[in-house]
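INTERNAL AUDIT FORM
Audit reference: QA-55
Scope: verify that the stored structure record matches its stored sequence.
Auditor: D.O.
Record contents follow.
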Amino acid sequence: MIEVRSDERLFHLATEHTSYIIEIASGVVPTLRYWGPRIGTPEAAGPHGEMPYRVHASASLGALQLEGLALEYGTQGEGDFRRPAVSARDGAGYPVTTPVYRGYRVHSGKPELDGLPSARLTAETGADTLELELIDEAAGLLIVLNYTVHADWDVIARHARLENTGTEPLSVERFMSASVDLPARPVDTVTLSGSWGSERHLARSPLGPGIFATESTRGTSSHVANPFIALAVQDTGEDRGEVHAATLVYSGNFLAEVDASLEEFHRMSLGINPSGFSWHLEPGESLTSPEAILVYSREGLDGMSRRFHRTIQEGIVPKQWARAERPVLLNSWEAQYFDITEGNFLSLSDTAAELGVELAVLDDGWFGERDGDDSSLGDWYENTEKLPSGVDGLAEYVHARGLGFGLWVEPEMISPASKLYEEHPDWCLHIPGHPHGTAATLGRNQLVLDLTREDVQDRLIGTFSRLFARAGLDYVKWDMNRYLAPIASAALPPERRGEAAHRYVLGLYRVLAELRDRFPTVLFESCAGGGGRFDAGMLAYMPQTWTSDNTDAVSRLYIQYGTSMVYPPVTMGAHVSAAPNHQLDRNTPVATRAAVAMSANFGFEMDLRKLPSEEREILRGAIAFYRRHRQLIQQGRFLRLESPFEGNRAAWMFTGDAAAGGAAPGDAPDPTAGLARAEGSADALVFVFRVLIGMSPDEAPVRLRGLDPEAVYEVYVAGPRFACEAPPVATAGGDELCTRGLEPALPRGDYASAVYCLYRRADTP
């Protein structure tokens, strides 16, 4: 709901539980009056106080002291010395400084973002949009601020559009999607950071004065950072406390920062990273920012995550996959690496089918002259010595076994040792005439295709449309195994070379949109050296992401826990791999490996033919268990119970009270409509993990959440082969399980796990 006061000075953006109130100070400057629990619209503020040493803005801006205001979209040069939301220069090189409020518009739904993914906030889903216009007449810069409100999802989507309305070119140097000035008080910053193999670890620290930033300049959202930031009141926990948060629907260089003040406000901003960025705006041209999703929660981090999860699953993931079941898959990578042969892959698929796997995926090594990572990227045709029947022959065999068939590709890359490079050596990102040539940009023995070029985009769309159609694919793993360097396109003129990083992302989105729309029943999974591009932008085209190349179960406790702060488990690919683990050489019980992997999109990354008979039966039971409870895990509500970052245990649970509740908007077809569904799904599942055992193992009760306090639950333990064994180990009320807790019975030893199934008694309300 958007309410506009008759004097047009107050705009009340209301969701089910939140109010966001904008005031036009002195009729010329949009300011944030309030963002918090839903309230009635207040009256306009009185005169604004002044402070010594502050600069007065020009008369066109009401001679206000801007540094003392909670500005909605700060600019530079008029006395506001905080980080601006937008920075631009006119044709003479002078800064654009005086955009003033010109008017507003309210309408149903949301405008399309030019070439960018965004949440499906439409009139049909109950969304409304407020547009505020700011104009600098002298420079000819129009700024349109868009706020889209979705009451049920409890989110506000923001983006901005710049338009050159003048007669001279403009240069944009900084462009944030959202900027919010919040009252200064003791808060913690909450972000997700890490490295390759340790992605999206939870990072939380008190906010001090100065600039706090998390960012990527690597051309992707990256392994080291994630386009998400939250400010949490310092006593905030999972189910209590206030949180203001934002995530960016974008896959390239980003900046999320807080300009922390000792005075009135903390400015939280999120948008395209200004480092290395500039955009040339000719008269009549416009530029649209990526979308930022803003969330307020007074139910702690869980309330924040619940809102993000619902918006991503219902509004960002492609509509046909929002409620579709995801299959149990086997990927060939850690089973065979580059040593692909047709016979081996078919034998592996036979074993997978026998155990209950539903999809077989052929990973790297199937194309060109690909026997290692030093050749053939760009040559997307079968190696017929390895695959005499071709990928279409493999698909026919695998489909006859009742499995889906998937293929690994890395379309954005090109190997110097490839036919494509011989044909088009200028198609990679490079600086012409550089003394070291393009060899200096090698990473993993490969170069990056220049996706700023339309001819390169067209080549990818044509090549992979033909491949996907011929192979009859059910699944595609889309990989990217290096960052962008140099971020330079020889196809751009000098005044536009600062646009290369953003144009690369726009080019990628065009390719992905075409392939997504041409192959709506293909399940695409994004990968970038594992979790190097796990963001809402990629999820708009590919409904799940390979969470990390690190398949060690203990490491995945931290990775999956942190990732869940923003992204629902249904977006995470998680596989059981061999022991000792190929990355860390750690020996972890197979039951624990299975329990961690089935807490997301379940799969296997191992040679199932080499399993001892006992482990094979455990995994057969795990697959059956997952398929029986798949709807709950993939579509239910996910709750974090104990953090591995804070102790020696991790615990989480799924309940049928789905945060995303109900079907996705629209009547999209279900690509997996023929997939069998087992009966007997639990009302809740609880997973508990111990990292290291001590002399006195910590078996303290785990306090559950999300249960009906009036109901009585029978608690069953999933036994050694993941069968819920009778009789129940406990019968207790939902209120007792959430207050006193569930006492876990973990096996002795390191890396132990236990899984519990909770069934609501039929004779309770």
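Auditor finding: record pair retrieved intact. The first strand starts at residue 2 and ends at 4.
Action required: none
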